[in-house]
Amino acid sequence: MDLTIEGPALDDDVVEAMRRGLARMGRPDAEVVAANDLQSAVRRLDSSLSAYTIRRGSGEVAAKTIVTPEASVIVVNSKYLREASHLDVERVLAHEAGHLALEAHGETVSPGRLNGESEWRWKLRYLGGTALEEYRIERALYELGYGASEMAEGESVTGSLHALNCGVFEAMTNPQSHADVRFFEARILEVVSNFAKVLDYCGALSLSGRGRGYPERDLDRFGRANWDDFVGSHWTERIDFLATVPDVRESGTGKFTKEMWHQIATLEEKLLKRVGFVFEDAPSIGTYGFFRRQSDQDTQSRLDRATEEAMARESQA
What we know:
Blueprint: E1 2-5, H1 12-24, E2 31-35, H2 38-45, E3 55-56, E4 59-60, E5 63-67, E6 72-77, H3 78-83, H4 86-104, H5 119-143, H6 154-173, H7 175-179, H8 181-207, H9 221-230, H10 234-242, H11 258-275, E7 277-282, E8 287-292, H12 296-316
Parallel strand pairs: 1-2, 2-6
Antiparallel strand pairs: 3-4, 5-6, 7-8
Helix pairs in contact: 1-4, 4-5, 5-8, 5-11, 6-8, 6-9, 6-12, 8-10, 10-11
């Protein structure tokens, strides 16, 4: 491990836990930066991530793997390294090393469009592909004996569902969304992308055999209502698809055919529709439209639930 530490030195036990995590995923020589300010460090190391934020759902990310033509580096929040258990530190480094493994195998989702692929289908394929990377890594971690990720725990999933609900309304009420439909589209896709990753974290736990009946059983009343609304029957279809995907330790190159990428895009199209939005082609003018396809009554119901949940969370704070 090539480790750069910003700020005070880390305890030897923490550094050793980091080494174990990298080694278990087959990346013992990875470059790692322990950053005092994770968000700023990521933006500094990759200029294309100038809008990167560490907020995810109801929490914050602990680490981010950056892959550039110059180098691949894992950036970890120094505060997390100093406060988390050694096992949690090991798990986080193993997870991030999984991203390096995907990159080394040439199995990260392609940023380019496939032949004949429309722009909006490419956006959904990319959204689904990045979520799928999380699934493949998490499945491997469960096979290696690691415990559940916080991202897949009931309280966190409930928070992520609330963040999805609130994120949609924040996008809808942003003045810039009214002036620029592409800005609105990007904001909605961002919140759906974050939630798709949560679903694939949940899928990895469920398919590991440790999450029977999960995750509905672990959600509070707000979480269950949001789950039924935003996910519902989509969960079964998503799980059935994820079950066909190998974990990160097994090459999936032969599996990821054009047809499979089409399946991934279609899956995310269905999730987007449950959230309340659709893409529609407009071939006569050579572009596409992005629309809200949800009744005002259903929209109001979601807003009322988001407001009630926010008030309940505030009263418990």
